[in-house]
TrEMBL record, chain B:
Signal peptide: none annotated. Coiled coil: none annotated. Belongs to the binding-protein-dependent transport system permease family. Residues 64-295 form the ABC transmembrane type-1 domain. Keywords: Cell membrane, Membrane, Sugar transport, Transmembrane, Transmembrane helix, Transport. SUPFAM superfamilies: MetI-like. Pfam families: BPD_transp_1 (PF00528). This is Multiple sugar transport system permease protein. It comes from Nonomuraea soli. The chain crosses the membrane at residues 7-26, 68-89, 101-122, 174-203, 224-248, 278-296. GO terms for biological process: transmembrane transport. PANTHER family: ABC TRANSPORTER PERMEASE PROTEIN, INNER MEMBRANE ABC TRANSPORTER PERMEASE PROTEIN YCJO. InterPro entries: ABC_transporter_permease (IPR051393), MetI-like (IPR000515), MetI-like_sf (IPR035906).
Amino acid sequence: MDHPPDEKAVQTVNKKFVGGAVLAVATMLTLASCGSGSSTGTQGGGETKAAEGGQVTLKMVAADYGDGPGAANSGEGFWKSVVDEFQKANPNIKVEVQVINWNDIDKQVATMVQNGQPPDILQTGDYSGFVKDGLLHKVEEIVSPNVQQDLLTKFADFGKVDGTSYGLPFVSSARALFYNKELFEKAGITEAPKTWDELKAAAEKLKASGVSQPFGLPLGQEEAQGESFLWMLGNGGGYKDASGKWAINSAQNVETFQYIKGLVDAGLTTPNPGTKDRKTVWEDFAAGKVGMANGGPMSIPIFDKGAVKDKYGVVAIPGKTGPLDTTLGVMDWIMAFNKNNHGEEIKKFFDFFYTGPAAEKIVDLYKLLPVTNGGIQKLSGDEKLKPFLDALPNASFYPFQDPKWSDVNTQIKQTIGGAVSGDPAAVLGELQKVAEAG
Amino acid sequence: MKKWEPLAWVGPAVLLIAAVVIWPVVEMIRSSFLEISRFGVVRGSAGTANYVKLFGERVFGDVMVRSVIWVVAVVALTVLISLALAQLFNQKFPGRKVARWALIAPWAASVLMTAIVFRWMLDPEVGIINVIRWDLGTFVQNTFGIEPSSLGLLSAMGGEAADQLGHASTSFPWLIFVAVFVSVPFTTYALLAGLATIPADVYEAARMDGAGKFRTYWSITLPLLRPALTVAALINVMNVFNSFPIIWAMTKGGPEYDTTTTTIFMYILKGANIGESAAMSVVNFGMVIVLTLIFLRVSRWKQEVA
């Protein structure tokens, strides 16, 4: 509802700026002629490469693992330090990093690609959607063999579509259940829950003691696919069955969501989980308003900043009959678009990232888990991360490598909240249809 | 030669309109018949598949109906409130200048920012609106022994009752409220400008004839205000129909699709299927034209005021 300003104002403004407009048009014409000049140059002499003395600018888009712009651990700050060092070593390559928060990155990148202006490098949660249209460099083209070999095999395998690698694992993470020890004590709960029954009993006690969100349940758009998957795993379910077929509406999953719906209906969770993002729930946990919530190493800094510092415990996620022996392994990816043909420069940047201190620094700064054998060895002494590092080898993953996953993922984020407010079987059935379509 | 002279004058404008209005419309319609990947790569013609898929969406009917309700509710409330406000601001009273300036504030502020501020005020754990509801709830509970929930107040923060944006039945009225809030200033000023054009002697004549206040308003002010009213309402109809930031910032169209209007639906579809999203745009475009025609017919805009 941005209404047009009234005409008089526009007219006065116009008179004032006629001079400016003429200047602007003149500038545009000059720029346009420059542009055409350089493009003819390119056709004549091939691509300008850093090696030939030309300056190459790599555009990179990255997700923000920190607390957003301005925060001490903001993604902008991290990448600036990495890029500064890289540029010192490679004066001919300039890297421009645009950091976008997790909520918007998928849509903004999609818009860039739709407009024919993809970044050279993209670091985000998924790569597979770009493969089918042939938009990505193969991994061999963008990292050295020694880097590729150091990647955890199981992880690297998920970067392949039809046997060819397109996605480079960037960082990983595992999940566990965080609980507020103080609230548990106040509610008279002595032990963290191991099964769904214990979880429900604990939640009821928390509720009775006045906790507004006994279980923090974020099924909103930010990461509904992760929270849902953790619950599915608790009942032997998942997005796909053992044979690799989509099984979103399997009997186990329907039962799982019926159980969660029971919790929601009894007021034992975040209200209206389908509208709540992970960020909000973690902030509420940090403020001491949530009894338990699923989280990862990356939530530790958020909780430590809040009222619950040193007052929370971490245990394996409860399943239907016992704690999970697996967890959700989340991998984020880094990939390179082939549109601008900057493969060589990208390779320099990626080798710098993986072999230098940068990969170590991001793991340390944001409490993420490494994706290389070398990285895991370096961290093995850290007691706080041990439960997560131990869980990694046995982790379960999203069906990333399935090209259908992007569509399914989008739809899960929008609708799976309905499975705990409406009919679980119907909502999961609709999702299954999306997965099987086309 | 003389015959063609006007063309030199209107030509640039025609070209401009062709470039910024007609061409995008043509492109939009063309895209709706193409199969386009999620990232904008054209994979070929889709025939009418995009439309078939769109009309087959489980929520399509709901979204269309909701959009009409959204437009009618927001525009009707906006116009009614603005009529009253314009009348008020047309009176002489001390501090009128300040009051008129204050009305501009919601208009001057970014719509997106306004919507985000309202979302924060409605946060179930810490939102100021809920804190007030909670404080009042505690007050009536302690003083009169009345159950807070019976008055729409809160007995605790963070629960279902405090989460007004989590449910369409409570969030949709809030969305409408915010939309009205940001639309009222423009509408009021448009009507105020209209009121200023009504000559004083008409009122004088009415007074001579013994017309009462209500009669004067109904038979003189409203009919003479009609041109301004029509334009203001029409601009609102189109703006509100295509409104995006308020709903997106406050509920993202959720839970599920429960507060999704056509514009939001178009954006959500774009994440998965651009062709289908383009088809939705075409339908949206058609809807705006139809709504506008209906509106103009109802308001009999061509009929001269006697």
